[in-house]
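Long-time lurker. I teach an intro course on protein structure, and each term I like to show students one example going from raw sequence to a predicted 3D structure in token notation. This year I'd like something fresh instead of my usual example. Would anyone be willing to generate the tokens for the chain below so I can use it in lecture? Attribution to the forum is fine with me.
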Amino acid sequence: MPDYHRSRVAGGTDPKLRSLQTQIILSVLLAVVLAAAIAGIPTLWLIHQQLDQQAWAQVDGGLQAARLLYDARQEQILRLTRLAAQRPILGTLLADGDQAKLLDYLRTLQSGESVDLIVVCDPQGQAVLATGKPPTPDLCQDLEAGS
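-- Reply from a regular --
Happy to contribute to a lecture. Here you go:
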């Protein structure tokens, strides 16, 4: 019996008891880490999915707004085209065939209406005159096919 008391007093704790305490501490630590992982990983995945959906919703909203702006501008240009075609001076200049005067008139119209390009097309779908370089050589035909 004295040997047992001396080993406890000399070493402080029993090696078996120290091993048991280490196992309990490691088990509790492992349980905490596993509980955090079990709760955290699905939460992080859910947050990721929500952020992804919100980002795509913003992209879709921006695309829709851009389409609406484009459609409104296109409608405005179509109204301007109809208005310009109904002006008597345009018909007179076209009938006279004076391209210099017609080009001056179109450039004045272009700057007054803040448009990038005005193209006059003939009934056959050919560009007769333009205030700049058309983006495609078949612009008149493309417009005719689109209407």
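Some talking points for your students: Strands lie at 119-121, 127-130. The helical segments are 2-11, 15-86, 88-96, 99-113, 139-146.
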